[in-house]
Batch of 2 targets.
Target 1
Amino acid sequence: MATNDFLPFAGTAGSLVTSQSDWVTLLGTGGALEEGFRVGIANPAQVNKAIRQATTMAAAIGSLVADNASLPALDDGDVPALTETIVRALGRLLAPPGQVSYFAMNTPPAGWLKANGAVVSQTTYADLYAAIGTTFNTGGEGVGNFRLPELRGEFVRSWDDGRGIDSGRALGSWQGDNVHGPAGGGNLILSATDNVGFQGGSTYTGALAGTIAAFSTTAADTRPRNVALLACIRY
């Protein structure tokens, strides 16, 4: 578990702390919540209340950073570093390393990489490596590196995970295109003078009324209508 230096003050039952109902009465002109405590008249229970509220919130943020995001929350006076750690923790919790999302822009936002099959460092992107490991390696990554998923120009299909609809697939595996034909197979009519089979076994030879739609061979793939967006992976 990561270190959390921020601890609550006076958090046990029976601590000398002003109740919340009494605390709110200190609002208003001249009240301690408006002007602070004055010399000689500070009530210890009220002082403890002020300290406890601040330390409890700090401890909660520290717990979020250390316990939930596994990052150290250090009380060393380095505000920029702590701020960066909190932002990183929030990003990790809201979009954990390994999450794939699509963006309507041509560059990835902060904290994300293009899912373009690039080879990256296991050290530089340690959180992402811990999440996906070598799942998308194809060879030649080199020692200390791993490969990102290659999603450019691809449709994503949910992993079968034992359901049996798309069996035999490993997580992250690639699959080529295919056109699902009629049940039992069949053939395309090549010309209007081909024999056409009818149910019952009879055939007819001659001109066909109307037209027959042919498969286009001008495109490199089979596709539905689509919109191109940038696929990225959280690191």
Target 2
Amino acid sequence: MTSVSGLVAAVIDELDAAAVALFPAWLPGAEGIEGPGGAHLPAVRALALRRAAASEHYGPFLAELAERALAGGPSGLRPEVRAAGLARALADSFGRSRTALLVRVPDGLTAAGQEVLVAACEWLAHRGGRWGGVAGGRAAGRRRSAGDGQAAPSRSHRPRRPRAAAGVVPGAGRTAASRQSR
């Protein structure tokens, strides 16, 4: 790929195909619904909207993804919406809260190609909120985004502060459980 937008679009399309193939793992209650016939499309749409209302999912994205899992077709949503929604759907498919995207740097990638690759990973991390990672090659040693607003450390950098441990959010003074009970 020679452009960041082209590479991002290709990655999102691959992730979309993976999410569609994993249907209904990311949509509880849709087990046994196959194909677009009968009431299947309205049924998965309703399940998706119900799931979104009770979670971090964006309803229009999840409903569209569920319908496309049955009927096919392209997405009409913006890449930013798709990146974030696919991260959640793929994580749900495996019973996880987050999804990591590990990108192997191809051998022999030019300096310009490395810049495109790193920029595309940064785009996915910032706009998708849950993606990021580069492994191998010279591009892997560059400082890049981790998807949570903090720069990911390269081998020569240390984290600025420790991650949350045992339910305690650094600097918050309360556990995650005590914030939820309020």
